[in-house]
Amino acid sequence: MSNFAKTFSSSLGKKLVMALTGIFLCTFLVVHLVGNLQLFKDDAGQAFNAYAYFMTHFGPIKIVSYLLYASIIIHAVYALLLTAGNKKARPVAYAVQKGGQNSPWTSRNMGILGTILLIFIVVHMGDFWWKYHNAELPYAKYEISLDNPNDIQVSELPYDANRLIHSEIVDVQAGKQIVVSKDLYKIVNNAFQTWWYVLLYVVAMAALSFHLIHGFKSAFQTIGWNNSNLVPIIRFLGVWVFGVLIPLAFAAMPLYFFFK
Amino acid sequence: MSNNMNLTLKVWRQKNAKTKGELVSYQADHVSPDMSFLEMLDVVNEGLIKKGDDPIHFDHDCREGICGSCSLHINGRPHGPKQGITTCQLHMRSFNDKDTIVIEPWRAEGFPVIKDLSTDRSAFDRIQVAGGFISVNTGGAPDANAMPIPKVVADEAFNSATCIGCGACVAACKNASAMLFVSAKVSQLALLPQGQPERYRRVQAMVSQMDAEGFGSCTNTGACEAECPKEISITNIARMNRDYFTAKLLKSEE
Ligand code: HEM
Ligand code: SF4
Ligand code: FES
Hints:
The structure holds two protein chains of two kinds. By secondary structure, chain A is α+β, with helices and mostly antiparallel strands. Chain A has two domains: about 5-135 and about 185-260, 3 helical TM bundles of succinate and fumarate reductases (Up-down Bundle), CATH 1.20.1300.10; about 140-180, no CATH class. In chain A, about 65% of the residues lie in helices and about 10% in strands. Chain A has helices spanning about 5-10, 10-35, 45-55, 60-90, 105-110, 110-135, 185-190, 195-225, 230-260; strands at about 140-145, 150-155, 165-170, 175-180. Chain A has a four-stranded antiparallel β-sheet, covered by helices on one side. In chain A, strand 1 (about 140-145) and strand 2 (about 150-155) form a beta hairpin. Chain A is elongated, with a radius of gyration of 22 Å. By secondary structure, chain B is an alpha+beta fold. Chain B folds into two domains: about 5-105, Ubiquitin-like (UB roll) (Roll); about 120-250, Fumarate Reductase Iron-sulfur Protein, Chain B, domain 2 (Orthogonal Bundle). Chain B is about 35% helix and about 15% strand. Chain B is built from eight helices and seven strands, in the order ββαβββββααααααα. Chain B has a five-stranded mixed β-sheet with strand order 2-1-5-3-4. In chain B, strands 6-7 form a two-stranded antiparallel ribbon. In chain B, helix 3 (about 150-160) packs antiparallel against helix 5 (about 180-190) and helix 5 (about 180-190) packs across helix 8 (about 235-250). The longest helix of chain B is centred in the last third of the chain and has 16 residues, at about 235-250. Chain B is elongated and about 65 Å long. The interface between A and B is large, with 40 and 49 residues. The structure holds protoporphyrin IX containing FE, iron/sulfur cluster and FE2/S2 (inorganic) cluster. Iron/sulfur cluster binds near residues 165, 166, 228 and 229 of chain B.
């Protein structure tokens, strides 16, 4: 084995892979959240559909998204390898073990929380990512007044294999901009009318919260960034931004469509 | 004495490394709260010997918290319910009359059971031998301050050096990871000038031996530092990781 391969198969090397992929997934969450805030706009999904097109068709972002898919897979595979190794390290279990008296619950259940997240990611990507790329979705046609951008007329166009996924023209004579996009917004809206589907999302976001309350700070400890000035900032971000704000904002989306 | 206690013990009995063990119940009556935990076991053992039974085997030596021999997992926690002490420093006043106390050995692939509660912790010795030393003669004592070391650094190195190698960190960890022990042994030298020449070779050799001994991988639960009788901090683990990654990814000499 080369020295490089040996490094990443050592206990510490595997942890480094976990930490780096984990942090990368955290940065992705921020971008994903900011983009998805378009869902809350009262524009029949015009901004959201334009954003979905941009994210799936702009070269540099496409490259980052492949990195992201790879990170999810590597993070999950290494989680499995580490967990298997850790199980082997204690072949006979204790009859009594009081983990609750010496460590936080989140830190002892990263694997379970991660498994919930993995199931969620598969369902989530199957329903939105896969459908957006492969299903015969209808199109939304937005006619936006040039004088008043809030005046938007929406109509539905049927699926047409030859139609561009997203197109925009300005018709100066008619005084309006016409935007036609594949209507992902509608799929999102429809999906979140089912109560158990909304519940799945809320549970998954709770799991995300617990995963990151421990995971975010843990990743920096693993990398060895534990400078005493840095640690309070990392702890704050881990709990309040990644543990509370981000999961709450994501969970608000299905609830918004359900109760709208 | 009136406040003596009657206790039920559930003790792990295992003939040797090859046989399977089981929890066996014993009655410990008239236990004085002033006894240490190990003295309580001594009394139980006297009773067993008188009956012609095999006494309970457990490790101990100094009985004052400095050698790191004693190693009992008591009611789900290494060294029992108190913090910052070894099993030999635990007293029966930490328990109540009619309590049931479950006593198990350290459980880890790296610490096979020799007999009953006694485990083979020579894996720690092999990790030390792999790199936990300085390969020069120390010579005569140098003049004070001939080698300036900031007080905070000296204190930190000394704190790391207080590890007694008991293995409670491994026992407490849900992954049976030895990283607190190894990082303390790496840090006590990595922090000081004398440790610098072999700093990066040392951390690689010790981590590699730690992996070879079959210990698990840290999940940063913090159980080790909570249970360590010497209150060694997990900052040592971050330092060890930093040195290891620096050695592996950023250095070419060693
Ligand atoms: C959005 C998705 C996810 C994010 C942002 C994320 C983030 C993180 C972070 C930052 C860590 C800490 C790394 C460390 O302690 O060094 C971590 C650890 C962990 N993750 Fe994830 N994760 C995600 C999904 C998953 C999935 C899908 C799984 C399981 C299949 C998983 C399983 C684990 C496990 C078991 C650990 C603990 C590993 C260890 O510390 O040894 N995670 N995650
Ligand atoms: S780090 Fe603490 S718990 Fe681990 S061996 Fe050293 S003294 Fe014992
Ligand atoms: S017997 Fe020496 S530390 Fe307990």
